[in-house]
Write a structure and sequence with these properties.
Elements: H1 8-23, H2 30-47, H3 53-62, H4 64-83, H5 88-119, H6 124-154, H7 168-192, H8 201-218, H9 221-242, H10 248-272, H11 279-286, H12 313-331, H13 342-350, H14 363-395, H15 400-418, H16 424-441, H17 443-448
Helix pairs in contact: 1-2, 1-5, 1-6, 2-5, 4-5, 4-14, 5-16, 6-7, 6-8, 7-8, 7-9, 7-15, 9-10, 9-15, 11-12, 12-14, 14-15, 15-16
Length: about 450
Amino acid sequence: MNALRFNRSDYTMLVLAGLLMFVWSLPDMIALRIGLAVLLLSLGLWKSRGPAWPDIRRAFQANGTVWGLYLLLTGWIIVQALLFALHRDIALKEIWGQWIRSGLTGLAGFLLAVHILRNRPHLGGPILALTMALVLASQVLIHDADTLWRWWHEGQFPFQQTRLVHNRSFLSFVTNLLLGFLCAETMARLLYRHRYLPIRSPWLAALFLACFFATYALGTRNGTLGVLGLLISSAIVLLIGKRREIHWVRLACIALLAGSAISWFGWITFKSDARWNNFLATIPIALDTEHQDAWKNPDLPFPQLPDGSTAEESAYLRLAWGKEAVKAIVHNPLGVGFGRSAFGQAMQQEHPDYTSTVHSHSGILDFTVGVGFPGLILWLAFIGALAAKGWRAFFRNQNPAGLLLLFLVTGYCARGVVDSNIRDHMLEQFMFLALLVGTLASEDERAALPA
């Protein structure tokens, strides 16, 4: 069925998805998030009856590897909780509240994409991507406007502050997501002369500037590293795509200019954050967890560096927790049980006097502590299947949604090394976008399958 326009339920799904995207990172919105997700999923399932089912079935077939790996990983997480978890009841509760709920949110994104594409083939994808991008852009622009207003009104630049969300790291996630949309769109225009998002280039450039300003103002080191990684990845994609069209001298000059611009942005953000000053000196002390106890007890003072200054708090804690998380994984290769507090449970098992955080501040380490090496392997396979789908869609079918998918999953996975993001609304948002964009990226594969 190739309808020429959306019906009322399609518009309703778009509105629900936009609202859900907006409230995900806002504080004290759990009930509203759940309500919007339930409504979106229910409407998607209701629309999947009757004539729509052949399209739904083809979409599942086109994304069979991704869904199969998700189900295998879900099966292992449940088996692990039943057989090996330190606290079975807690693990099972967390599986439902965290993992299953994020999977159902992903299913909502998947069904949304299928129904939008079903009614507007080749046009539904850009409309859906634009909706998501504009919602993300609204949050970045609100933050930027508030920052400039406070700078003007208070006379001092509000560095590393935001009033939109409780934690500035949450807003840096939003900024990085929006940059993923913008970089994928820019690469599609440069490589294939293909405009996916119906946005004029000056507006696209303005959104880039808004993201760069937000990244500088928020001052999150991991967010800045994510931006630099995304820009470097975009430059690599551009060089790969243009390698046969441009003389190597010109190609080298372009690479040098791109590298210089990225390095300049990295340098000014590095110089603006005083925490980098003691980073290298903090590393050996942070890794000496056998003789330092501040990482175990928040009431203890942080250790002193050789020059008499105090160890940088964030670097010290993250490195110490990271080392202990690796040790816990080695001691419990099958995991201690899925959940947000898996790291804390492992620490209390190894160190009865441990009273600090339940997160190691590394999503991938927290996840592996909980579900063990089998879970890590299946998670990486799931991420790899999504990334491979994105690569094929962009470089083989010239579908910009493929590069967006590639940026989305690799960025999320890389951020998970240094931030505890495989939980709560961050996991829900990732699953929603990954399966939504994955469906947009597989549009050509789905169309080629028999009805």
